[in-house]
User: Fold this.
Amino acid sequence: MNNHIRDLYTIFLKYNASARQDGNVITLTHMLKTYEFIVKYALGDGKIEYLGIVRAGPPRKEDLRWQDILKNYYYKMVKRLHI
Assistant:
């Protein structure tokens, strides 16, 4: 696992999310609401491509806030890593 991916795990575990890796796709799911934050990275160069956040069911106000938190942390991490 490269360092960029390890940083993603750290960010999501801080927000009580579980992580699963299948090949070069990582799925992170929040424990209370079903979110999937899927990150794909290219082998060799360590670049990360953000694929999206998926939730089962209609969005609610608090769900949108959670999405904003995830996006904010993701983009801060990418900026910090200069990806």
Notes: Confidence is low (pLDDT under 50) at residues 31-44, 55-59.
